[in-house]
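A favour, since you know our structure tokens better than I do. Could you add the entry underneath, on a fresh line?
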Amino acid sequence: MKNPGITAYVALGANLGDARRAVLEAMDAIHDFPATRVTRRSSLYRSAPVDATGPDYLNAVIELQTALPAPMLLDALQALERAAGRERPWRNAPRTLDLDLLRYGDGRIDSPRLTVPHPRMNERAFVLVPLAEIAPRLVAPADLAAVGDQAIARI
């Protein structure tokens, strides 16, 4: 990819099936999106579900460079979720793969399909801790402190 385009961040998570494999394969698949390359990967983390039930999640965050417009990137992420067997029977249901577009450059998007920056990212240790690992300038210490009571561990 000659023109690196926009720097974006995507949170990955899974808590059904082979969660580790699903997250790692999704990282590779995102790297293969058109006009996109993954430039940084966080460690993998185990976290308890937030506002949900079910098994612990495996989580990570990636940084990517993409020339895809945000809606096209979202479409590609959702197609990857569907290919991994993602179902949405209810809000915060357990997932075979969950991909959230956290940031898309410095832009703000507020549409019925997409809100960027992700509206709940600062409430979730499973997003902030891996994001701080790869892009510490994007995570305020106060935000990390605010989610300090949420269980998360690097694996």
User: Anything to note?
Assistant: DSSP finds four helices and eight strands in the chain. The chain has one domain: 6-154. The mean pLDDT is 90.
